[in-house]
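Duplicate of #3305? Posting structure anyway:
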């Protein structure tokens, strides 16, 4: 067996000499635990049809959860096989999976397809024969066809693939939907009837739950707001929509001000909702007046809290300058590309208000989308104040761009607030009727028409 002494953050079972090698890295660590990533490399020029990685952990350390792989344990040996979509590795390519370790010990041995992860020719142990040739029965097992027609029934558990959001079939999709206003101000807007109307009358895929932290929000009643968020996650699930849990930081703009609250909140909602397929976590709304390094540090402390409970969920990280990819503070997406958050299965936030943010912002989104997975978790058809008239030309240009790039979006707001960005006319929420066009403002009519059009959710 190959004994491997692993240093603090990056240790490689390196030196490729055979077709497949595997590299182990620690992505995050905390008191008595860490998050690891293993990359399986196909060093040959022909496709590898399947892979198997076996890690032996030292006494005192166990593997809790894995993602992007199927895990089985036998004593201290943990065996990882493909998750279903990632069995085949094209020549010269790689795939990776992650896991959470409980305990601080690093693997003492690593085999890939029965051979040393370093690519040397250590003979396979009897219990782990190397496949002599790729076995067709072990190749991609496609999830069964969808049994329902809702967005969640069709797409299942989402994951980030390349720069896209992908469904359970590994196909890029776009989710289109609406954001709540502040839950503290508009509770009567978020009821069984309103969430059902969003799903069935608007045909929305996505429901963003905006839980302000300040401004009479979470900080004033953590358990009450946590319960309200969970109840809205359930309403979205009951209607087959994805729920985006938005930790709506705004003022102060440095998310680190709320770091302890974020850890508490996300620890609770991720534990409670771990088994659900419809939950996406947005860990900070609009950082402002804070460096990218500060945001990245926050993300790298909050993400492991979520991963420890709900390891396969997509997490979305806010960006500098009110989630403008830095543009509104004189920067741009390059600061993220050159210094990304050290975590997998994450996306980055972009926000715009169509009457305020135009061609230069659109150009930056198009540029950034080539290298970063982006999610428009909030945008308005009006000015950045949240008020004013719908800018139809700019809103159309934006949504056409997002459709073309398959960037998911949520519009601010599904509420009857007295401001131009609200989709519902004053008094709608108390009336209890949310369907049809008579309840809509100009912005609501524009957005409902865009969101109602047929989705494109490929299943093969
Ligand atoms: C606005 C609301 C407004 C509220 C204000 C302060 O529309 O009613 O008084 O927040 O809480 C954002 C923020 C979002 C803002 C929105 C419009 O994420 O909270 O909502 N906006 O100003 N970023 C850019 C614009």
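Output from current build:
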């Amino acid at each position: 067996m190959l004994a491997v002494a692993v240093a603090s953050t990056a240790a490689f079972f390196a030196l490729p000499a055979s077709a497949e090698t595997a590299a182990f890295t620690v992505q995050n660590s905390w008191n008595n635990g860490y998050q690891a990533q293993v990359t399986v490399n196909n060093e040959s020029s022909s496709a590898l049809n399947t892979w198997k990685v076996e890690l032996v952990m030292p006494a005192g350390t166990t593997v809790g959860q894995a993602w992007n792989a199927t895990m089985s344990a036998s004593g201290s040996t943990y065996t990882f096989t493909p998750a279903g979509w990632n069995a085949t590795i094209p020549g010269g390519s790689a795939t990776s999976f992650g896991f959470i370790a409980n305990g601080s010990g690093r693997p003492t041995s690593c085999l890939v397809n029965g051979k040393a992860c370093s690519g040397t020719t250590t003979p396979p142990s009897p219990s782990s024969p190397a496949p002599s040739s790729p076995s067709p029965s072990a190749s991609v097992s496609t999830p069964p066809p969808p049994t329902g027609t809702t967005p969640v029934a069709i797409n299942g558990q989402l994951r980030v693939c390349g720069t896209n959001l992908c469904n359970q079939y590994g196909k890029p999709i776009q989710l289109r939907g609406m954001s709540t206003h502040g839950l503290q101000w508009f509770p009567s807007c978020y009821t069984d009837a309103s969430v059902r109307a969003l799903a069935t009358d608007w045909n929305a895929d996505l429901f963003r739950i905006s839980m302000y932290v300040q401004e009479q929000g979470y900080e004033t009643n953590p358990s009450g707001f946590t319960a309200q968020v969970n109840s809205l996650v359930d309403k979205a699930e009951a209607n087959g929509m994805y729920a985006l849990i938005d930790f709506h930081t705004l003022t102060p703009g440095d998310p680190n001000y709320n770091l302890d609250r974020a850890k508490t909140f996300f620890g609770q909602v991720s534990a409670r909702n771990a088994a659900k397929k419809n939950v996406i976590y947005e860990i900070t709304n609009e950082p402002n007046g804070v460096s990218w390094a500060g945001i990245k540090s926050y993300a790298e402390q909050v993400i492991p809290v979520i991963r420890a409970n709900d390891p396969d969920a997509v997490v979305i990280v806010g960006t500098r300058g009110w989630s403008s990819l830095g543009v509104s503070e004189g920067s741009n997406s390059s600061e993220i590309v050159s210094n990304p958050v050290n975590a997998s299965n994450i996306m980055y936030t972009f926000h715009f208000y169509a009457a305020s943010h135009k061609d230069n912002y659109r150009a930056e989104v198009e540029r950034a989308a080539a290298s970063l997975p982006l999610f428009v978790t909030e945008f308005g058809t009006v000015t950045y104040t949240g008020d004013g008239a719908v800018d139809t030309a700019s809103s159309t240009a934006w949504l056409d761009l997002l459709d073309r790039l398959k960037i998911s979006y949520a519009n601010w707001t599904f509420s009857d607030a007295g401001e131009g960005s609200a989709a519902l006319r004053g008094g709608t929420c108390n009336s209890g009727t949310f369907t049809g066009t008579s309840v809509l403002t100009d912005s609501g009519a524009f957005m409902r028409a865009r969101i109602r059009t047929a989705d494109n959710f490929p299943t093969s």
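Confirmed duplicate; merging threads. Residues 1-16, 121-140 have pLDDT under 50 and may be disordered. The longest strand covers residues 20-30.
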